[in-house]
Write a sequence for this structure.
């Protein structure tokens, strides 16, 4: 793995930010977010943890109510890799959007799809517009994850207010999406579609391992899936292990007391 | 990287299984069907055996079997990397293998094979094995063919999970070839059933599937009931809601 996080962030991000007119405070928060991401990138990180951090950074930096990052599989179908909540309703909304919605459009075209008011033209994606309204989301920005000409996925940012994100916020969101792309693919030098596909399939499989591990922990600890995910992540961080490795150990071995212990405290 | 329908190759693969003479044993028929359904010249399946590692289950011919044993014996090769990484691994050109497999590549260079694709047979942490596909010299899979190969590997994973490593492949693949897409809840339910019954992930997944087929319910609905705690696989506090043992 040969990612240089410094060159990666400064070139793409600052180029965009200079046009946006950020305040000093914005810069501070942004810098913190990228320092946190750089930490993830230099270590032997995994794609799910990196994506989860990007989602959290998006939630912190942008005026949004929910976010989800989806990547495409070898068949061109999108799957949720990370989201701001593990709640079923958000996951279902993201999946509907991935089937017919702004997310799929952003993925297919490689262009940002900005819908300022979902109640205008709901017939473009009726199922998605209806479900989004049900959950009180009024606008969505879908930003493409792509590496040169190859499609990777899309980052979705939801607002409960009508009105899209500012140009600066879109630029920040796109910069985060760009970091996610490089992080998920592990290398910037990948060019061939099949190599990119290999990385995406591996990332999707590690998400499956995490779901299996969440099930084990939820049952053993009598906790919900959200809490199980938090415990997995915090254990991985405390012990400086990759999230996917911790999850695999949970599924392959039976001892989960160390992870569940913090629940009892 | 495309929008073609994975169901097409599934149907093609199933038709290919029917075309293979039935005197071949189950796993050999699956390998033979790979060669009929995909633009590849050889195919081999190796399975993950608990405590042992990979073992060759079947191959279309001696070339494929030899390459398979070579990587297992040397402990390096695309198939082993695919199992370890959880994603497909391709060796497109033996002449430009960039030193990634310094022992394996020279060993198989004279085998008359072209590009090699190693596709892991797995569901999350459940490692079933690996499907290795070999193109004719000078040939490789384009993006739609590669997607088809991944679909076939997914299908084989379902079949091999259902019959177990030593089981016979059923005469008709029945419901196994046409499984619905696994949802997050299917994987979460697998973990919960593991904890309820104290069994490994593979057994838990098979139990979940068997229950779904046995009750003619979609897998995802059964999984949702398990995650929603409306269905338990152990004799829990409320025996009426137990799926039995």
């Amino acid at each position: 793995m040969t990612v240089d996080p410094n060159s990666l962030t400064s070139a793409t991000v600052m180029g965009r930010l200079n046009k946006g007119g950020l305040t000093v405070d914005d810069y501070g928060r942004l810098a913190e977010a990228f320092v946190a991401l750089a930490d993830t990138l230099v270590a032997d990180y995994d794609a799910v943890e990196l994506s989860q951090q990007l989602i959290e950074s998006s939630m912190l930096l942008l005026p949004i109510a929910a976010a989800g990052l989806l990547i495409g599989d070898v068949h061109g179908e999108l799957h949720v890799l990370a989201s701001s909540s593990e709640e079923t309703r958000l996951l279902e909304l993201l999946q509907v959007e991935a089937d017919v919605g702004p997310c799929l459009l952003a993925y297919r075209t490689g262009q940002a799809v900005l819908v300022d008011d979902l109640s205008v033209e709901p017939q473009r994606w009726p199922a998605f517009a209806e479900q989004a309204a049900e959950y009180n989301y009024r606008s969505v920005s879908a930003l493409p994850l792509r590496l040169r000409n190859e499609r990777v996925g899309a980052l979705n940012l939801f607002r409960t207010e009508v009105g899209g994100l500012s140009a600066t916020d879109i630029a920040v969101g796109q910069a985060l999406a760009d970091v996610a792309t490089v992080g998920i693919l592990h290398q910037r030098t990948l060019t061939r579609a099949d190599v990119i596909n290999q990385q995406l399939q591996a990332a999707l499989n590690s998400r499956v391992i995490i779901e299996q591990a969440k099930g084990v922990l939820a049952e053993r600890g009598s906790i919900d899936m959200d809490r199980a995910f938090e415990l997995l992540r915090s254990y991985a961080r405390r012990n400086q292990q990759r999230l996917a490795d911790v999850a695999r150990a949970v599924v392959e071995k039976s001892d989960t007391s160390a992870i569940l212990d913090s629940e009892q405290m | 990287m495309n929008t073609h329908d994975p169901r097409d190759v599934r149907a093609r693969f199933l038709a290919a299984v029917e075309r293979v003479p039935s005197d071949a044993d189950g796993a050999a028929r699956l390998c033979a069907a790979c060669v009929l359904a995909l633009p590849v010249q050889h195919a081999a399946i190796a399975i993950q055996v608990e405590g042992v590692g990979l073992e060759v289950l079947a191959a279309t011919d001696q070339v494929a079997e030899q390459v398979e044993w070579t990587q297992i014996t040397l402990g390096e090769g695309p198939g082993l990397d695919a199992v370890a990484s959880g994603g497909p691994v391709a060796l497109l050109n033996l002449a430009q293998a960039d030193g990634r497999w310094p022992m394996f590549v020279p060993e198989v260079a004279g085998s008359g094979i072209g590009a090699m694709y190693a596709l892991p047979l797995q569901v999350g942490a459940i490692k079933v094995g690996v499907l290795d596909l070999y193109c004719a010299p000078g040939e490789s899979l384009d993006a739609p063919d590669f997607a088809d190969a991944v679909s076939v590997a997914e299908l084989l994973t379902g079949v091999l999970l259902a019959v177990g490593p030593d089981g016979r492949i059923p005469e008709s693949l029945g419901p196994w070839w046409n499984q619905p897409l696994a949802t997050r809840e299917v994987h979460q339910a697998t973990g919960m059933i593991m904890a309820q019954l104290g069994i490994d992930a593979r057994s838990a997944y098979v139990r979940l599937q068997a229950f779904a087929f046995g009750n003619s319910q979609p897998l995802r609905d059964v999984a949702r009931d398990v995650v929603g705690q409306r269905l338990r696989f152990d004799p829990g506090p409320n025996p009426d809601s137990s799926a039995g043992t």
User: Anything to note?
Assistant: Chain A has a mean pLDDT of 83. The radius of gyration of chain A is 18 Å. The interface with chain B takes residues 72-76, 80, 91, 150-151, 193-195, 197-203, 205-206, 208-209, 211-220, 225, 247-248, 251-252, 254 of chain A (CB under 8 Å).
